[in-house]
Amino acid sequence: MDLTSGFEELFEDAPCGFLVTDADGAIRRANRTFLTMTGHRAEDLVGRARVQDLLPVGDRIFYETHFAPLLALQSSAREIAVDFRRAAGDRLPVLLNAVMKGDPGGPREIWICVFAATDRRSYEQELLLARQRAEHSEKEARELAGILQASFIPPGLPHVDGLDLAGVYRPAGLGDEVGGDFYDMYETRDGWALVIGDVSGKGAEAAVVTSLARYTLRAAPAREPTPSAILASLHHAVVRERTDRFVTVAYAQVSLAPGGGCLLTLSLGGHPQPVHLTGGGASRVGRPGSLLGMLRRLNLSDVTVEVRPGESVVFFTDGVIEARRDSDLFGEDRLERVLLETRDESASDIAGRLLQEVSAYQSGVLSDDVAIVVLKVPNEATAVEGAGS
Amino acid sequence: MSVLVRNHVKVSGRPDGRPLVFAHGFGCDQNMWRLVAPAFEDTYKVVLFDYVGAGRSDLSAYDPQRYSSLHGYAQDVLDICHELDLTDVSFVGHSVSSLVGVLAANAEPDRFADLVLVGPSPRYIDDDGYVGGFSAQDIEELLESLDSNYLGWSSQMAPVIMGNPERPELGEELANSFCRTDPDIARRFARVTFMSDNRADLDKCRTRALVLQCANDVIAPEAVGRYVHAALPGSELVLMRATGHCPNLSAPEETIAAIKAFL
Fold it and tell me: Which family does it belong to (chain B) (predicted)?
């Protein structure tokens, strides 16, 4: 094959379009493949049109703001996706690879390879749409999780004379899944009920059980005489649900003592023991009992604790003590230390500080949901002050 | 995070020189000034930077609310001026940065001595009696074009682009990187750029200004350059021989000469 005419033929009939342009995009040469692809005639392009002129407006802006600067900055640009307007008026999706030839200051020209990419681009469009749909669904799921979660955590605890109450909740990770932690406080026949609990697992199924736990616990005090009997009825409700989930709950029946302070009758269904903060230190209260909804045999008991003025009881879910940093856990010792440091603060300061410590321990991203409820009996002085104002 | 890191600020030239701040437009980063800025280093303190969301800026500092209008970008310019304690500033803005410069100068007129507006447009979309050159539909097309061209971006790209300024072995990986960023940010910046209408801000500008207008600029046509010149009291207009929208790359000598003559 004659080398010169061979190369000429290669240029004209290569399996991709070739364009040679001035540095500003004015077309000097277009090969036969390009003309066939686009339906344009050489005499309409050469010396008459710039590459930009063959692009729809959106791509023209892209050309000026991305393609041309890239060529100037690095003398090449790769895989630029644009459409060429064909002579017939329709569009041809293409990919462009281009190099800038010549030295800065001297005459320069741009060599552009044009690859038809109709199928690939429509596939990319589908992928793009699929991704947008996925992102949209993810956003919806996150919103739904947030709304559902909010229904498990009361917007505020009720105001009870003689008590200082505070609750805080923070979801695990980015908060895009419904966690199983909940707490609640409501009036019952015998005073007030304070509950905090945790359903195993996350997501929709856990949310169903959390919901079941919340309304069962609200309804049970009307029939059942003691906290342990209330937890037992929740246990049976969860078992009847035939779910793999189980629940831990700390249930406290709160009765205000006439002379200040209160009595807590406490039953624990597989839940971590709350911490009783007194002038003498911190102690764990309640007798550990069985997980609810798991085994057939139940072992639950009621323990009564007196909470005097100046003292508090801190309820929490396992996300506090099992907060992880590498292979270390936040642990009981750290929990007690933080609580002892803050025991003279208000309920909301105690709860807030504990959450902050747990969060800081995990560099701000929680490995598990955390719920904390603090019940404090204010000092008599404060209580009197409060009553007088 | 320091503003200097956030905006990948580069200071060169004479430490005691008058400050000359170069601002890039939509699409690429401070490299847009690579052929122009060095010519001013013997006289000026030359300041280059990337807007948050562009180039090697800290993408995590991108706040969609703040950057939902050009005022957020003007605040980047002001933050840098405050951080470096720049006064008597000459500001050179390319494309959309021209208007960012106008907004910054309007906010703190005492801080700015001159504005050089390279290919400015106060509004890209045609309006009653005003020709910006584009329709709203065109801008939607641009957003589609961006989507197609940012397909290869993945979150893994960010650290590569950010953390390894000049590592040649990453050259393959970094193809097109001067003009690349998080596609979501690029879309938002495109929207802010091309949907903005800052015509009223031109009237408020009292800073001395030069308008550099290229021939055959499809982004900012000559009529728009003339509009800006007419709206800015006492401004100068230079019609350049350079064609296209980026004379800072295609005709650096002519650009340098025009800026020097004005300053």
Answer: Belongs to the AB hydrolase superfamily.
Q: Which of B177, B217, B229, B235 is catalytic?
A: B217
CB contact under 8 A, B138 and A65: no
Of B95, B135, B250, the CB nearest to A24: B250
Average pLDDT over residues B146-174: 53
What is the DSSP pairing of strand B89-94 with strand B112-118? parallel
Among the listed residues B71, B94, B229, B245, the single catalytic one is B245
CATH of A154-388, one of 3.60.40.10, 3.40.630.190, 3.40.250.10, 3.30.930.20: 3.60.40.10
Q: Which helix (H) or strand (E) holds A119?
A: helix A118-152
Assembly ipTM: 0.87
Counting one residue from A and one from B, how many pairs have CB atoms under 8 Å apart? 105
Judged against a pLDDT cut of 60, whether residue B175 lies above it is answered with: no
Rounded-to-integer distance, Cα A58 and Cα A45, Å = 21
A83: pLDDT confidence band, cut at 50, 70 and 90?
very high
What was the pLDDT predicted at B154? Answer: 55
CATH of domain A3-116: 3.30.450.20
Mean pLDDT score, A298-318? 95
CA distance B88 to chain A (A): 30
Q: Which residues of chain B does A70 touch, with a Cβ-Cβ cutoff of 8 Å?
A: 28, 176, 178-179
Tokens of A367: 């490995």
Residues of A in contact with B249 (CB under 8 A): 68-69, 72-73
**B79 is known as an active-site residue:** no
Q: Which of A151, A149, A298 is nearest to A230 (CA)?
A: A298
**Domains in chain B, CATH or no CATH each:** 3-262 (3.40.50.1820)
Mean pLDDT of all residues in B9-19:
96
Query: Of B27, B144, B218, which has the smallest distance from its Cβ to A60's Cβ?
Result: B218
Min CA distance, B37 vs chain A (Å)?
14
Six-digit token string for A305: 């604790």
Q: How far apart are CA B91 and CA B42, in angstroms?
A: 17
Q: Among partner residues B147, B151, B179, which is closest to A70 by beta-carbon distance?
A: B179
Q: What residue segments make up the domains of chain A, in order of their start?
A: 3-116, 154-388
Establish whether B245 is a catalytic residue.
yes
* A164-170 and B19-23 beta bridge pairing: unpaired
Q: Give the whole-angstrom CA distance, residue A146 versus residue A136.
A: 15
Region at B47 (left for phi over 0; alpha for psi -120 to 50; beta for the rest):
beta
Which amino acid, one-letter code, is at A116? A
pLDDT at A374: 97
Q: pLDDT for B25-44, tens place per residue?
A: 998 999 999 999 999 999 99
CB contact under 8 A, A78 and B179: no
Average pLDDT, chain A: 90
User: How far is B240 from B212, CA to CA, in rounded Å?
Assistant: 7
Does residue B71 have an active-site annotation?
Answer: no
Considering only the beta carbons, identify the residue of A52, A61, A73 that sits closest to B34. A73
